[in-house]
Amino acid sequence: MDWWTTHDLRRTARTNFSTLTDPHVAEIMLGHKLPGQWQTYDQHQYLAEQGMAYQKWWDRLQEFSDYAALFNSVALSQANTSSIAQRLELPMLDEQGFGNGLLSRFIHL
């Protein structure tokens, strides 16, 4: 990545919000006003909808954190690669690039 700004976090959040709620709720979550006449006639704050979307967003972020904790807490050795693969529900195949073999190459063991 050539460059990165904190606005990229906002863009990432907004993109993900689209998968969690309606577009107008996602815009409100970012602090944007509804467009045109919509903001004039629709005075609803969509607090319940925002709350549900924020909870879904938190759950998604927690999943990422859980995966990171899994890799950080387990001593990554060839002996326990299969247990990691089982916890991640990866297929248990041979060392020809699948299952444990793929995981081993991915984590550079």
C-alpha termini separation = 26 Å
Give the CA-based shape.
elongated
Radius of gyration: 21 Å
Overall average pLDDT = 77
Query: Which secondary-structure class do the elements indicate?
Result: mainly alpha
Number of domains: 2
List the secondary-structure elements in sequence, H or E: HHHHHH
- Give helix % range: 55-70%
Would you identify the regions where 5 or more consecutive residues have pLDDT less than 50? Answer: 93-109
Number of helices: 6
Query: How would you characterize the largest beta sheet?
Result: none
User: Can you count the beta strands?
Assistant: 0
- Percentage of residues in strands: under 5%
What does the model show?
The protein is mostly helical and 109 residues long. The protein folds into 2 domains: 73 residues; 35 residues, no CATH class. The chain contains 6 helices and no strands. It is elongated, with a radius of gyration of 21 Å.
